[in-house]
Known about the structure:
Helices cover 24% and strands 18% of the residues. By secondary structure, it is of the alpha/beta class. α1 (45-57) runs parallel beside α2 (76-83). The longest helix is centred in the first third of the chain and has 13 residues, at 45-57. The two termini are 24 Å apart. The site of iron/sulfur cluster (SF4) has 12 residues, from loops. Residues 21, 23-25, 28-29, 67-69, 95, 117, 321 line the site of iron/sulfur cluster.
Amino acid sequence: MIIDSFNRVHDYLRISLTDNCNLRCFYCMPEEEYDFTPASRLMQADEIATLANIFSANGVNKIRLTGGEPLVRKDAAKIILSLSRLPVELTMTTNGARLHEFTDVLEEAGVRSLNISLDTLQADKFMLITRRNLFHQVKSNIDLLIRKGIRVKVNVVVMKDLNDSEINDFVAWTKHTPVHVRFIEFMPFSGNRWTSNKVLSFGEILQSISTEYDYLPLKGGAHDTAKGFIVPGHAGTFSVISTMTSPFCDTCNRMRLTADGKLKNCLFSKGETDLLTALRNGEDVLPLIQQNILSKAKALGGQFSGLEDVKVAALENRSMITIGG
Ligand code: SAM
Ligand code: SF4
């Protein structure tokens, strides 16, 4: 088992397959010109399988593939199928633009649930946020996956004066569609133009929904990051991920492997452990994994304690696109 110094068991690994992406979401990519990591510095498919095997042998029972955009990687299908042989729940976070090319692979891999990101239900606003004209492709892929019986959670990063006016449109979508909308508080990362006044808090999101809907809380799982709700009679649900105003670090069980093979013990951790170089040098990586997790801070990477306390210039971290969310 992989345990930190606060007795939190770490059994959930998120693996970034690439820092490349077919969208350009401004809140995720750094502002400055960005060079994607060359393929030789990325974990290769066999290296991903070897590392995933080590984690699985040491108690990991859930793996999420992410990126960048995991499905832009040429060998994405091969990686998905190889990880599906492990005794883990395999899932993925994707922007959805290429999902229609992967339905057979996902079915063969036994993937039952996916997180798909969609911040707006308006095509022109999608273009503004992502700088790519792919709204209709993403939306129809979400519908396709739901029709195929896959549980779809839709990630919506809520930003003041950008998409906060659409919160109730997303809730309306859950009326006849079994879609699980997750509103995410906007988080600060290197170069992403974050300011505290662009964050719409958990309380503000619920307040906005309560102007149109009565809703009930859902019972959560032990390690849930999202607080869930349902409008009685709706086919789907909504939830809020309140990292900035009500963090859920006490029950954290997550580790992150970046596409270049560095282990991060928190989305906001400063330190990283280079597992890929160790693996390529023939070293035993398990002690490195255990040391990294033992050094995990109690909350928020030890970098801030909540919304009021963020000093953006002082944050030491990667950009979101190189971590994987
Ligand atoms: N490309 C895939 C996607 O967009 O779903 C996977 C990678 S993306 C980095 C993972 C998740 O992080 C997405 O749901 C995205 O909306 C979210 N995200 C990115 N930047 C964020 C930020 N600054 N605050 C909150 N969520 C963010
Ligand atoms: Fe790409 Fe996902 Fe980041 Fe958007 S949020 S730029 S889709 S990695």
